[in-house]
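We emphasize that the prediction below concerns an isolated chain of 407 residues; any contacts that depend on oligomerization or on bound cofactors are therefore not represented. The input was used exactly as deposited, without trimming of termini.
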Amino acid sequence: MHCGSRKQRSTPVHIHRQNVFEMPKKLSSSREPKKVLLKEEKRGVMAQEHPAESRVPRTGQEKCWDTRGRQIHSPQGTGQDGELKKGERSPDPRFTDNQDGTVTDNFTKLIWLKNADALGELKWEDALDRTRRLASGSHHLNDGSAAGDWRMPNLREMLSLIDYGRYEPIIPEGHPFENVRTAIYWTSTSLAPAARMSWMMTLGIGPTVFDIKFSLNRTWPVRGKSPVVPRTGQKVAFDSNGDPTNAEGTGQDGELQAGRPFPDPRFTDNGDGTVTDNMTHLVWLKDGNPFGFRVWEEGLALCDALSDGDAGLKDGSKPGDWRLPNIREIESLVDYNEAGPCLPKGHPFQNVRPSSYWTSTSVEAAPTEAMFIILGVGPSIFESKEHPFFIWPVRDKLHGHRKDQTE
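Result of the prediction step, given as a token string:
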């Protein structure tokens, strides 16, 4: 895609945008949430006893643009996502059409309904119920599945389909799915601090925001388990009024807790101004706000220049080792059971703001803008690159350096 042939932006984003800049107030309830104990196996979603390393996938972005939206054809040294292409490459082919009404994602091993709009628009609880009752013999399915095998995807499962190098729809080129709508799709993950709302995905250009559960949106059923997609962290089920509810049989994220569990300990404080994420093996600056508010290009440059002796670092790093994280890298930190900030409990970071943080990922459909994430509750949306946000540098392990923990 070139800047001159930009498509019209999908509309749902600005409707919800004003709602995500402040952390929602927790709804009052007379009942305290109770942790749901995960069974060893729940309708095919099995607990992983020994979490292995969960590599962060590439975003799919392969181009770079300046703040005016002009493509940079020689992007060396920009530090942009489209230059660095950090993360694990997707397999080729990415998807397999099983010729039975299902499609297997060869990267995540999840199995998706081929028809992405089989159930139409539904309220959240109705969508959960209709998805649970899906079985072979309905909606052109001939896969031998039974009622209870299918579920509404959680937020991270839905995110695993996204290709930030595409738009309308924002899923990989050459996919075999049918009826993919550039519209809003529900996930089974409630917004923990304001649980009358649920997380949703806009498949036009990809923001993750939230909506009240009584709204009408689409759902895309999934089944199976993934050895690579992490859990969201959500452990509680909520009804459409935002009250904690008995999770059994709901099909909610808080019941199934599908995905690879977080390792314990999740993080290692390396004692040199850095913290290693033991799930992704990314190394983060311990100080979650070293530079204050910066516009996008400043953030890219400051991260690239960071080195030993700066921002409390004693890690032997050099200029060029650090970078502004892409959208998948910074999203990997989020625990969707937490808020203000939405990081796993007991994390060793300092100075993290429950506010907006830039990523190195531009918006393919509108390259004057870039993706950012709000670490109050976790939505990822976009803004003009001229807008100032916080910056949180990341790097890979320095091979051979004794202070980089975990192998």
